[in-house]
Amino acid sequence: MSIRTRNWLLLAPAGTLFLALLIVPLTVVLVFSFGERAPAGGVVPAFTLEQYANLPARWTAFKNTLTLAPIGTLAALLIAYPLAYFLAVRADPRWKTILLILVIVPFWTSILIRSYAWIFLLGGRGLPALLEWIGIDGVRLINTPFAVLVGIVYGYLPLMVFPIYVSLERLDKRLLEASSDLGAPPWRTFLQVTLPLSVPGIATGCMLVFILLMGEFLIPAMLGGGKVFFVGNALVDLFLQSRNWAYGSAVAVALVVIMLITVTVYMRLLNRLGASRDDVAIM
Amino acid sequence: MRIYALSVYLFLYIPIGVIALFSFNAGRNASQLQGLSTKWYGVALSNPFVMDALMTSLTVALTAAFLATVFGTMAAVALQGISGPVRKMFDLLIYVAVMIPGIVIGIATLIGLITVFDQLNPLIAAVWPDGATPPKLNMGMGSLIAAHTMFLMALVIIIVRARLAGMDRSLTEASSDLYATPFGTFRQVTLPLIFPAVLAGFLLSFTFSFDDFIIAFFVAGSETTLPIYVFSSIRRGVTPEINAIGTMVLAVSLVLLVAAQILLRRGARSAR
Prior knowledge:
The structure holds 2 protein chains of 2 kinds. By secondary structure, chain A is mainly α. Helix content of chain A is 74%, strand content 1%. Chain A has one domain (28-273): MetI-like (MetI-like fold, Orthogonal Bundle). Chain A has helices at 3-32, 50-53, 59-90, 93-107, 111-122, 127-133, 145-170, 173-181, 186-197, 199-214, 218-223, 231-241, 245-273; strands at 36-37, 43-44. A two-stranded antiparallel ribbon of chain A has the order 1-2. In chain A, helix 10 packs antiparallel against helix 13 (245-273). Chain A is globular, with a radius of gyration of 23 Å. Chain A starts with a helix and ends in a 10-residue tail after the last helix. Mean pLDDT of chain A is 88; it is low at 275-283. Chain B is built from 11 helices and no strands. Chain B is mostly helical. At the A-B interface, helix 1, helix 3, helix 4, helix 5 and helix 7 of A face helix 1, helix 3, helix 4, helix 5 and helix 6 of B.
């Protein structure tokens, strides 16, 4: 058997799966988004832009997603950076691996259960009861944008810490010594040496978190109580409740297109800033 | 700095800890701790709906993780040796599979498979021998396993390829110089070196499939997986039983994850 045949055989199952469960389904979504809603719940093939023209009907979902996703990403960055810095520069090397694993592990455990934990903590008997006890009355936390934001930061913090940690870890520590030898105070060394050199990590982390947030459903569903909903929640409603496949497909396509545009613009911007792209997978 | 780090760790682990603590609640009120007991674990484990959902989740996760690991490793090994358009196309597909939001994968699989099934079912019925009831393709465990396998396979390819790229090439060259067959080289040189990554890929895939809610929500048909069961129970209110189920789910993932992390790190060291 030639190497060529062998490679084809090895790739056959993967290729078939990608074709049947990625290419074909995504094509169906694209085709349906130009179709018309059938009375029975399916789609009548057509070529109409009616569904796309109707997108503003779900404007609130897009608005919520496009406000809370960037705010959530920024909040995660602000909380993650000092921790990543601590892990890469300050932490005792003997504890580093275990500390790092402790950050990564929550990301891979059930986001459902972890969001559920916050229903518990932010609900009437949780933090509000604690606040009442110290004299602050009438605070409602659950089912607010704040609750969703807490859930987002909690859910995606590990994904932000990891790439920043990697870029800080790679940083040549002699540069920091050189900076302080030349008389720079620590804050200046940080602003002019450390921070610029960790831009690739910041960029990767922000992009990963932002992309995942764009498609989020569970966190707003659990902590937003139907008041704070994302595009993901609109999609569940359109496909599983009102069964409007044509319109739902148009919403899904719009979501993916917004994501692609954001990522492309973001990459361009970074390349112009001269930062090299480096992919770090959290696994 | 240390205090800051500590408080972030507390932020990450207190919610998990609270769930675990309240799962041992003796009382029936979910948010008032009235003594400790393991009674809610008993309640959860003797609830037939929970056990059914658990069995479904385990079957799906084991099958999907196994298939994804085998197909993904095969593809990763093949992709290592080729370049050109085929390689580029696979790179693109892997990228798309990982980047597209899970919810869109779920939707696409749902309407894609239903559309294809609607075309296939009359065909099957037409060619089926008279008298026998023709099988009807439908959404269910099969479609869920297929959707998970596709996504997890992309993940396994990424993990295994990272290890293959870090592997010392001269080892496989030496093996073939010494007249080992390509398969012999794979079995005796490549596989032992990439095995930690393969196993880690399997464990991560299992965890992901076991915990996945959003894809299953769309493509599981009438099947109920454990996350779907938990999600619909939460809608009906917070109970100590959910705390117990949640704690068990977290414990299973934690054990598998720590194992995967150790394997990945040990693998990284030995491959150099």
